[in-house]
Amino acid sequence: MFLALREIRYNKARYTLIGAIIFLIAYVVFILSGLSVGLASQFKQAVLDWKAEKVVLSTSSNNIISASQITSDDLSNIHIENGSELSLFSTSMRKSKSERDNIAIIALPDKSKIMPEVLEGKKFTDNHLEMIISKKLANQGYKIGQEVSVGNNNIKIKIVGISKSSSYSASPVIYTSFSALNQIKFGEKSTSTSSVNAVVVKSGKVKIDSSISNQYKVLSISDLINDIPGYSAQNMTLSAMIYFLFLIVLLIIGVFMYVITLQKVPIFGIMKAQGISNRIIMNSLLGQSFIISLVGVFVAFIASYGTSFILPDAMPFEISLTNWLLYALILIIVSIIGSLFSIITIRKIDPTKAIGG
């Protein structure tokens, strides 16, 4: 390590340049990680808020809640110990004459066990045109007591409560009754019965009567989340970008250290002639990679954390300390691996040839 520090101090400009490159790559990795977690949260947060284990969907739904339909007759043949039925509908609500906000409506019984905690106001009641909105919508200007036109039929729904920020498929969530959702979907004079898309099971066993067992299936929450449209593809894309950045670091460090090794062959030859072992020289090279990558990644970590405070609210950015520490460790390890390519060259140096003997 002593030789590594001496070498870095002697060639400040050269090692500052490679450190800056590692910093920039690590910075992009941390920012992409934050965006990945933030976007994933926007897709699945409402599902996580249920704190459930399983969900019952129709077999034809392709594991998508909104595509599932459970009739009222069949609902009585699905037996659960702890949970609630729900309906999901995506639409928009009017913010002004020329502006609408996309929302995901979740309809529940007013005594539902997956009802969100109300931070302000009160819960909605069945057979009333009332709703609980996400904190995110409240931050956009919606207030308790306000009546908002929802859906294509512009049904007036009164805001009676505000829950924590939550979203489903990147749209903020509102909670309301089945009767209110029925009017939002079909109009005030609709005679259609309220539909149920899923049965959420918080805990316990699920029993589906044999007469309808082939029409419905029990799905784990993790499988449900993975099949949310766009969720898996988005995560795979951002993860692939991060993995390619790891490869770039490996190649940059490998090439940089290999070039330095070639330039210093005469010096290494003299060191070997003086009795300095290959191990000491190789440890010095690995030490340089470790120090440069550690400093670059650490500065990038701090810079990324600082950046999180100035990003606009519209940008879905969420810090996962576990992911950041893991990626930091991978970047450092990859940097060290990159320098291993030069070890073969060091081992092959012949002192007599290197110094012109």
Automatic annotation (TrEMBL):
Chain segments annotated as transmembrane: 15-39, 240-260, 280-304, 324-346
An example Gene Ontology cellular component term from the record? plasma membrane
Subcellular location field: Cell membrane
The segment(s) forming the ABC3 transporter permease C-terminal domain are: 240-351
The protein's predominant localisation is membrane
Does the keyword Zinc belong to this entry?
Answer: no
Write the record's keywords in alphabetical order, separated by commas: Cell membrane, Membrane, Transmembrane, Transmembrane helix, Transport
Under the subunit heading, UniProt states: The complex is composed of two ATP-binding proteins (HrtA), two transmembrane proteins (HrtB) and a solute-binding protein.
Query: Which species?
Result: Lactococcus lactis subsp. lactis (strain IL1403)
Keyword Transmembrane appears in the UniProt entry: yes
Belongs to which family? Answer: Belongs to the ABC-4 integral membrane protein family. HrtB subfamily.
Query: What is its membrane topology?
Result: Multi-pass membrane protein
In Pfam terms, one family for this protein is: FtsX
Record-linked InterPro entries: ABC-4/HrtB_transporter, ABC3_permease_C
- Name under which the protein is recorded: Putative hemin transport system permease protein HrtB
Domain of life of the organism encoding this protein: Bacteria
Q: What does this protein do?
A: Part of the ABC transporter complex hrt involved in hemin import. Responsible for the translocation of the substrate across the membrane.
